[in-house]
Amino acid sequence: MSHIEEEFEKIERDQGWNTLFRKLANDHGVRTLEKKNDIALLSMNRGLNRFRDVLPYDDTRVRLQGGSNDYINANFVQVPWAKRNYILTQGPLPTTSEHFWQMIWEQNTRVIVMLTRLIEKGCNKCWLYYPDYENDSELSFEEVDLKVTFVSERQDEHYTQRKFELTNLLTGETRPIIHWSDFDWPDHGAPSSPEPFLQLLYDVRQCGAFDSRFGAPVLHCSAGIGRSGTFVLVDSILKMLAHTDNPNDISLIEVLAHIRTQRHGLIQTAEQLRFSYMAIIAGLKELDELEESEGLFNESDFDELSESDNEENVKLTKSLEDINTELQKRADNYQAPTTNDTETSLRLRLERLKRNEAIEKKVNEMKAKLHEQTQPSSLHHNKNTSILTLLLTKYRRPFFIGLFTLLTGSICLYKFSMNSDRTH
């Protein structure tokens, strides 16, 4: 039994999670007494924070390099004993989505892990800052000269993997991005079991999130401290345990205290702290497999998919039936590791073609209606139409109103004349 498991069982027996969590909060307050977050409190930056009490420390905050304001609610979090670097940030707001993608570009990040849903219990937790194809196939952020394009989507049992292309509109350079989301993790709470979380951690490692050739992965939930902090703690502790000859020297409490000095409030509840212990204990049983999963970021996956897309572009002039047959044939025969991604991309391309045809049909209908409305009036268009017929049909109402007015005026004029004659 590991010393972390022994600690867990002791705290469980003593029902001491709330007591331990309060003690850690007090210790954290002492350790960070001199820490400042003055930049976050500037009047021009207050509206860029999702929560008033979750602010980045000045000394570890991420600074944007382009534009007039370098502020974003994000921090670098480093765990040197695990040789791990992360960027933790809040869920983007409508007004900060462009800053988020600017940070992704400037930090050369390739992997984003989103540990919140857009809406939870009727509350907005994060803005839809990425194209999910259901709403948009691409999003342009002209303020920062960036464009995000949807490439593919893969639905797993517990979460979703999406692939995007991030394009610099000034230089034309394009970078592949892998985005993990839709993991079932309640706000201020913890998953019911650590197994799905460990599977997510396995996949995030495997996709090359920690490839040293690129920037640190970006983790965010809603505030960027609770679920995101739990991810950092579990991943870094498991990494340290895999590369030490003295596991008893590794203190979960000390690592937590260290990462909290880099971003305020990491791990928000006693329940999340308890889950961290549970996930690490479960991860120890699969430690070798977790370590072997860690790989390099494979940009060729995106290149192969792009080549396939280019081949399909040539066939867009064919009929829908021919295109559907061709796409199905390619999806059935394609044997590369990214078969699921390719099938999704081809399916979405077909849907896009159908949608474009429907839009074109609507446009043609609108043009036809507009053309009908701009035709000459029937009075000039059909010379055989009599004036009387028009007066009794199309202009019936104004005709009778005018006739009634004429008769009334004539009667009044006649009476006026008769009265004048009698007076004389």
Describe the structure.
It is a single chain. This protein has helices at 3-14, 17-31, 43-46, 97-106, 194-206, 227-242, 252-260, 270-284, 287-293, 300-313, 320-333, 339-373, 378-381, 387-392, 396-423, and strands spanning 74-79, 84-89, 111-114, 119-120, 123-124, 138-141, 146-155, 160-168, 174-181, 218-220. It is of the alpha/beta class and 424 residues long. It folds into 3 domains: 3-293, Alpha-Beta Complex (Protein-Tyrosine Phosphatase, Chain A), CATH 3.90.190; 300-373; 381-423. Strands 1-2-10-3-9-8-7-6 form an 8-stranded mixed sheet, sandwiched between helices. Strands 4-5 form a two-stranded antiparallel ribbon. The longest helix is centred in the C-terminal third of the chain and has 35 residues, at 339-373. The N and C termini lie far apart (131 Å). Mean pLDDT is 84; it is low at 305-321, 334-339 and 377-385.
